[in-house]
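Entry:
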Amino acid sequence: MTRSKSIVSPDRRPTDRELQWMAHIDRHGPQSSAFLFELTRDTHRCKDTALRDMKSLREAEYFRYPKQQDQIAKANFNPHVYDLTAKGFEYLSYHRPLERRTRPTGHWWHSLWVSSVSSAIEISGTKAGLGYVPATRILGIKDAPMAIPLRRGKLIPDQLFAIKYADGYRAFALEVDRGTEPVRSQAARKSLARSVSQYREVLEERLHQSHYGLQSNLLVLWSFMSLARQRQFEKLTADSPSFISTLIPSPFPRAALVKQGATLVSRI
């Protein structure tokens, strides 16, 4: 049996649409093929063509296929998740400044969920006519790092962005809760209650304004994978309108999250 010939020619170069995909991955982190298709759906409506083009970019070594996604049950029935290779980052850098210093870090699955939520908000917000301001532009105001110094330690949001509404800007710190930490802990370890306390310090002392140079107020958006956890969070933050929450659709980030993002940005 002979192997089929690669569909990629040695001089394969990404198209303008594919550069949009690459820039979106650079900004947010690993992306589901469903999200990438949704990103350019208004101008390219054929999903099969989009999936073939993503496969082509992978074979041309601009995209890579993170193996962690194969660990979930029935992985073949879920949309593929793609990230950029070193070649992809290098090629993109010739066309626009890279933003990858603000991509989520740490455990791969956590990073995927963070990138999925922020991606869904940008896609849905843009379709609704709202402006999305990425972390790179916010941090560039004062050339500040993502980490906010506190009285004890520091706070690093999972992601940072702003949305331009008709009446002005609103800035957001994003946190994604996968239920891996306790709600409260007597030990010196991270917990939901401790994170809320740290954000209270930021909000009360307006550290987001002094550190990032923001003029707008900050809303803290917590995304949960469990309704029970979301309700516990709402009890912790019932006295503050600066904390808002949303429930991530189960079992895997799909276009449903984009629709939820549209609902979220329209009601804030």
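DSSP finds ten helices and ten strands in the chain.
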